[in-house]
Specification:
With 238 residues, this protein is of the alpha/beta class. It is built from 7 helices and 15 strands. A 7-stranded mixed sheet has the order 1-2-3-4-5-6-7. A 6-stranded mixed sheet has the order 8-9-10-11-14-15, with no helix packed on it. Helix 6 packs antiparallel against helix 7. The longest helix is centred in the C-terminal third of the chain and has 14 residues, at 222-235. The N and C termini lie far apart (39 Å). The mean pLDDT is 97. Bound molecules: zinc ion (ZN). Zinc ion binds at residues 64, 66, 69, 112, 145, 164, 188.
Length: 238
């Protein structure tokens, strides 16, 4: 596991060279918010990193319900029973293993590693909507990769934690655009059209740092993110 820090945001990267899977510890006063839960074996490393910072994890907020973002959820909740678990209302359904679509959604199959019904024991404590606050972080809905994908934005530092709405490993790309060096997030994406619309909204936040599920954090991402959005639009002929 590799730890990279930017201010109060710490990126924990598992298997950073081979198949990087990130989660984040955000310091909030005396407490920590964990964003995403990486892989099943990651619980130990996450708890060790929190112990190194010397603050307890009191919230576990999830960007979406894919297996490489919820892998250690049950084990962490077992070891941290008072930590509150937060996820979007829409992806809470995926967390329960329900892949059904609503009538007003693009009728495309939800892709990627979604847990089987009943596989995840943890029941979320709070369902998040656009504009909700998680500590200092603002919830930004960013559907596309999954129907209920959300991002977390810190308005003061302008750090944006975008889950898999954007990928950075192998080159910056909007979710759904295949990056030959790391095609997995694209293969796991539900609606490319919604992903582009979400990326445009994220671009408008003018983040100072872009932090995602796969790839190292990127400072001053404006120009490269805007290029990635343009490329994704072009690929979809929008
Ligand atoms: Zn994903």
């Amino acid at each position: 596991m590799r730890i990279t820090s930017f201010g109060n945001v710490h990126q924990l990267s598992f298997m950073p060279r081979l198949f990087p899977v990130n989660c984040y510890l955000v310091e909030e006063g005396d407490e920590l918010t964990l964003i995403d839960c990486a892989l099943p074996f990651s619980a130990k490393g996450i708890l060790k990193a929190a112990a190194g910072i010397g603050k307890p994890i009191t919230r576990i907020a999830l960007t979406h319900a894919h297996g490489d973002h919820i892998g250690a959820l049950d084990e962490l909740k077992r070891q941290l029973p008072v930590a509150r678990v937060l996820i979007s209302e829409r992806d809470a359904r995926l967390l329960r293993g329900d892949r059904s679509l609503d009538a007003n959604e693009p009728q495309q199959m939800i892709r990627g590693g979604v847990p089987k019904p009943g596989a995840i024991r943890t029941v979320p404590d709070q369902l998040l909507c656009e504009g909700d606050r998680v500590g200092s972080l603002e919830v930004i809905t960013s559907p596309g990769h999954t129907p209920g994908s959300i991002s977390f934005f810190e308005p003061q530092s302008r750090v944006l934690i975008a889950g898999d709405a954007i990928q950075l490993r192998g080159g910056i790309a909007v979710s759904g655009k295949v990056v030959p060096l790391f095609p997995f997030p694209a293969m796991a994406t539900w609606s490319k059209e919604q992903a582009v619309a979400s990326a445009e909204r994220l671009l408008q936040l003018a983040p100072s740092v872009l932090a995602v599920g796969h790839g190292t954090m990127l400072r001053n991402p404006q120009s490269s993110l805007s290029r990635a959005v343009a490329e994704a639009r072009q690929a979809l002929q929008l």
